[in-house]
From TrEMBL:
Pfam families: WXXGXW (PF12779). This is YXWGXW repeat-containing protein. Residues 220-237, 255-264 have a biased composition (Polar residues). InterPro entries: YXWGXW_rpt. Residues 265-277, 290-304 have a biased composition (Low complexity). Residues 220-315 are annotated as: Disordered. It comes from Edaphobacter paludis. Residues 239-254 have a biased composition (Basic and acidic residues).
Length: 315
């Protein structure tokens, strides 16, 4: 797959569009994590493109750059000769995002997940995963979704044939703010994790959604737990991962303690690199030949049964 960067005028919002000659994969199905607390808004996951092809950027709860702003997701659109990515942005109203049904209130038109009410965000519990202990301003409104298509791009062969309406065109002319530094960091972390590559996960990313930006340790613990449950990770592999995670947690705590509770950009990069290494190890451990003893016995029994040479054991 060849990707070309198409430069556009400096006055343009995005600055640079990404153009790719192969359509992005379909949207994966995943569960939304619990909202961390009041003031967080859900930003759905999406397929981004890098040097090694498409990779999944997990959906995540984030804080908007200012009160009253909503998130318009980015989307891929057919540009006549290639698929072009239109970056997401913050603004007072939801703009056009290709008609893509990202779920959780992003039905393809507008946003049904909540609204700002006198400086406080109200959450629609019918489409959001809300714990009322952490989030207090909630309501319930049934959302009817007519587009259950998991296609992730607009236009072209097989794409969604949806066009901007008057409200979405008006939103494009309003003040818009690009993704926050946290969102960019979140995207860059996904780009460095091979488990997020479509060529590796075949459209089923290892981490599809996160509770908050940089909460990778939690998600990696979930991956380890899944590996243990399925028998893909041995006790030794699990112990190694847990020791490395504990070391990262100690380093993070020490760095924060020495810097008034904050991490410098260099420290962020170092922690992120170590988490990337752990992520690769988890992926390797779950796909190598090593298995828990009971799983190995089951595999051997199946192989013997398939060869017709095994004998049945009754226990």
């Amino acid at each position: 797959m060849a990707a070309a960067l198409i430069l556009v005028p400096a006055a343009s919002f995005a600055g640079v569009f990404i153009s790719v000659n192969i359509a992005p994969p379909v949207l994966p199905v995943y569960t939304q994590p619990l909202c961390p607390g009041d003031g967080y808004l859900w930003t759905p996951g999406y397929w981004a493109y890098g040097q090694e092809g498409y990779y999944w950027v997990p959906g995540v709860w984030v804080r908007p750059p200012q009160v009253g702003f909503l998130w318009t997701p980015g989307y891929w659109g057919w540009g006549g000769s290639a698929y072009i990515f239109h970056a997401g942005y913050w603004g007072p109203h939801i703009g056009f995002y290709g008609g893509v049904n990202y779920g959780f209130g992003y039905t393809g038109r507008g946003y049904e997940g909540g609204y700002w009410n006198h400086g406080v965000f109200a959450y629609n519990r019918s489409v959001n995963n809300i714990n009322v202990t952490n989030v207090h301003n909630v309501y319930n409104k049934t959302v009817v979704v007519n587009n259950y298509n998991r296609v992730s791009y607009n236009g072209g062969r097989g794409g969604l044939q949806v066009r901007e309406n008057a409200q979405e065109q008006a939103a494009m002319r309003e003040q818009r703010i690009p993704p926050t530094a946290n969102q960019i960091s979140h995207r860059d972390a996904a780009a460095q994790d091979r488990g997020q590559l479509a060529s590796v996960n075949h459209g089923r990313p290892q981490v599809a959604a996160m509770r908050s930006v940089n909460e990778r340790a939690f998600n990696q613990q979930q991956r380890v737990a899944n590996g243990v449950r399925s028998g893909q990770m041995t006790a030794g592999e699990t112990r190694n991962i847990e020791n490395r995670e504990a070391s990262i947690n100690r380093e993070t705590a020490n760095d924060r303690s020495a810097n008034n509770g904050r991490l410098t950009q260099q420290q962020h990069q170092q922690i992120n690199q170590r988490q990337n290494n752990v992520s690769r190890s988890i992926n390797n451990d779950r796909h190598n030949a090593a298995r828990q003893p009971q799983v190995q016995r089951q595999q051997q029994a199946r192989q013997q049964g398939g060869n017709g040479g095994g004998r049945e054991e009754h226990r």
